[in-house]
Amino acid sequence: MDLKSHQFIKFFEPEQAEELSARAIIETFSDHVVIFEEGEVSDYLYLVLDGTVLFRKHTINDHYQIVAQANSDDFFGEFGILDGKPRSAQAMVCEGATLARFPRNVLIDILNNTKGETVLHLFNFIIQRLRTTTEEFVKQVTYKDKMVLLGEMVNTIIHDFKSPLSSINLSSSMLREMYEDDEDTIEWCELIQQQSIRMAAMAEELLEFSRGSAHLRKQDINLTAALHRFEKLNRIYFAQANVTFVLSCPESLTLEADENKLMRALQNLVVNAVEALDGEGGEIGVTVTTGKVGVTIAIQDNGPGIPLEIRETFFEAFVTYGKKRGTGLGTAIAKSIIDAHQGQIRFETEVGQGTTFFIQLPFQGSQFL
Ligand SMILES: Nc1ncnc2c1ncn2[C@@H]1O[C@H](COP(=O)(O)OP(=O)(O)OP(=O)(O)O)[C@@H](O)[C@H]1O
Ligand SMILES: [Mg+2]
Question: Are 247 and 334 part of one and the same domain?
Answer without folding.
Answer: yes
